[in-house]
Design a protein that fits this description.
Blueprint: E1 2-6, E2 10-15, E3 19-26, E4 29-33, H1 41-51, E5 55-59, H2 65-68, H3 71-77, E6 82-86, H4 87-93, E7 121-123, E8 128-129, E9 132-136, E10 145-149, E11 154-156, E12 161-162, E13 168-169, H5 179-182, H6 187-199, E14 204-206, E15 213-214, H7 217-242
Parallel strand pairs: 4-5, 5-6, 6-7, 11-14
Antiparallel strand pairs: 1-2, 2-3, 3-4, 8-9, 9-10, 10-11, 12-13, 14-15
């Protein structure tokens, strides 16, 4: 697992060149954001040992298998660590893939997996866990959240954006790495989320797939404009097809 450092507090852990999870340094140890693909626990634990810091919290952005794959193994290896995710994510991990009445009834996409680990704390938008603020970020999945580091303006956005093969809003295809787009549930909601995340004016953008970007505002603006154009074209085509 490759380790890359960004600023004083963010440590990027990358497996198979394209799948990221993150450590965030806190005074009491490390917060782990996402648990990676199945089989990632050994590498994550080794990376924490290299930092000589305990993993005190495990948090999740959403319930896709490449983000929760090693949750059970890590929670077993770290029995005193706080485990925190949303009630919506908990439902998905339990096998309940139903949509709520207030959500788009579009087809769920991507790899939702069953996991046995229960949260020790349920998160909701606006909550703080360590130095991180929880930010609602649905679109890629209904349960998606992001984490905003209030100390330095780092945004850990999960799959709300990707930077592998070029910065893109969830749902916008990058043919050199198409998987985040193919796994996106509702592109219009993802676009609305991208606009809200851009309004945070992040100093650094960290994503589930691809490199971390410093001073990402201009690139985020371009990605949002591209998503707007693609959705506009798609909606136009749909109207023509049904007209």
């Amino acid at each position: 697992m490759k380790t890359t450092y960004h600023g004083d507090n963010l440590i990027q852990l990358t497996r198979l060149t394209a799948f990221n999870c993150y450590f965030v340094r806190e005074q009491d140890g490390l917060t782990l954001i996402d648990t990676g693909l199945p089989g990632s626990a050994k590498g994550i634990l080794a990376a924490a040992k290299q930092e000589n810091l305990p993993i005190t919290r495990i948090v999740l952005t959403h319930a896709h298998g490449d983000h929760v794959g090693s949750l059970d193994q890590l929670s077993q290896a770290l029995p005193i660590a706080e485990v925190a995710f949303t009630a919506r994510t908990a439902r998905f991990l339990s096998g309940d893939l139903s949509l709520t009445a207030d959500e788009s009834q579009a087809k769920l996409r991507g790899d939702f997996v069953l996991r046995q680990t229960k949260p020790t704390r349920l998160l909701a938008p606006g909550d703080h866990i360590g130095s991180l603020e929880v930010v609602a970020a649905p679109g890629h999945t209904p349960d998606h959240i992001a984490f905003w580091d209030t100390r330095d303006g780092t945004l850990i956005a999960g799959d709300a954006f990707q930077t592998k093969a070029g910065l893109a809003v969830a749902g916008v295809m990058r043919w050199l790495f198409p998987f985040p787009a193919l796994a996106t549930w509702h592109p219009l909601t993802a676009l609305e989320t991208a606009r809200r995340l851009r309004c945070l004016n992040p100093t650094r953008l960290a994503v589930g797939h691809g490199q971390v970007i410093e001073d990402p505002a201009d690139l985020m603006d371009r990605a949002i404009a591209e998503a707007e154009q693609r959705l506009s074209n798609g909606q136009h085509k749909e109207k023509v097809a049904h007209g």
